[in-house]
Amino acid sequence: METVQHIITIDELEQRITRMVKQMENRSPHASDSSGRYDDMPVSWWTSGFYPGLLWLMHDVTGNAFFKNQAEGWSRKIEEAFQEHPIILHHDVGFQFLLTAVMEYEQTGSEDGLRIGLKAANYLAGRFNPIGGFIKAWNGDDKKGWAIIDCMMNISLLYWASRVTNDPSYGQIASAHANTTLQWGVRDDGSTSHILSFNSHTGEFIESIGGQGYGPDSAWSRGNAWALYGFANACRHTGKRAYLHAAKRIAHFFLAALPEDNVPYWDFRCGGEEEEPRDSSAAAIAASGLLEIEAQVPQREKRMYRRAAEKILQSLSTHYLASDESEAILTKATGNAPQGRDINVSLIYGDYFFAEAIAKRNGWQRRIF
Ligand code: GLY
């Protein structure tokens, strides 16, 4: 018989996030040190939306104005990154502004939230390469033809912009990017590549690049999680079942490749297994994505995805929670193993997606991605 383990409740989550807020002051956290203290990154850094996103999420779930008071102001603070010349923001404006400006607009109707959200969407749309049908990921002359799997999450900003402006062109760019990613980035077995390199003039596909994964043919677990969740969202936004089928295929690979405790190694094909670091952030993202798949499949399939998500959330709640002294929620995440950065630490996006999955499991209905 399966032992029923505890999954963290909304009350427990609220206590942890309240503690985090009291410790955080004005920092924009990304990764923790070994004692569980978060760093402070510039607001232009790709992770700047996750901490305010946690605050908006908790406000939405609990109705507690404390979280809203803490969250307000972050959209305008991150908007300041548009003043830098040259602009160093990149495709991750999706993560940054969905969780701040869009969250703010959707919860409060704020005109500033709408304005800043659309500004970010226009910037993201401007990164589209029409001949290749992809959104350019990063900046730099050597990266003009690079699209990356993570961007499947950022395109939700474009689907949102189409909804609020009633202009389909944003969503058309998002779907063109999803189609290209599906063609070149999702393998037959459901594993995914991190970086896709195209000729930026002709649009021709050149090669896959390992990026944050072990190698070009490996399976970076967080990349798999971004893709699983991102394709499920693309189906919700467009009704195109091919995206849901892709999300399911990626989910089946992800679930089949998980070790005993349902939290992946940083790459499913990194070889060493037992000695390799885990990535609890990939587990949290996948859990939230699996609940998104559950919402879109027929009744008779729902249980399969719900159970898979709950097994992951149980394991995270049992073995991966940060100590009471830590500022974070989860431990044992891995940021960038090939570069030796942020290994076995807490990562703010792991915390966000864990909280988001717990919120969904407890009936939270709003969708930001
Ligand atoms: N979006 C970058 C990462 O997942 O590390």
UniProtKB/TrEMBL annotation:
Q: What Pfam families is this protein classified in?
A: Glyco_hydro_88
Keyword hit for Ribosomal protein: no
Read off the InterPro entries from this record. Answer: 6-hairpin_glycosidase_sf (IPR008928), 6hp_glycosidase-like_sf (IPR012341), Glyco_hydro_88 (IPR010905), UG_Glycosaminoglycan_Hydrolase (IPR052369)
Q: What is this protein called?
A: Glycoside hydrolase family 88 protein
- Similarity field: Belongs to the glycosyl hydrolase 88 family.
- What does the UniProt keyword field contain? Hydrolase
Q: Give the source's domain of life in one word.
A: Bacteria
Keyword Nucleotidyltransferase among UniProt keywords: no
What lineage, starting at the top, does this entry show?
Answer: Bacteria, Bacillati, Bacillota, Bacilli, Bacillales
Write one Gene Ontology MF term.
hydrolase activity
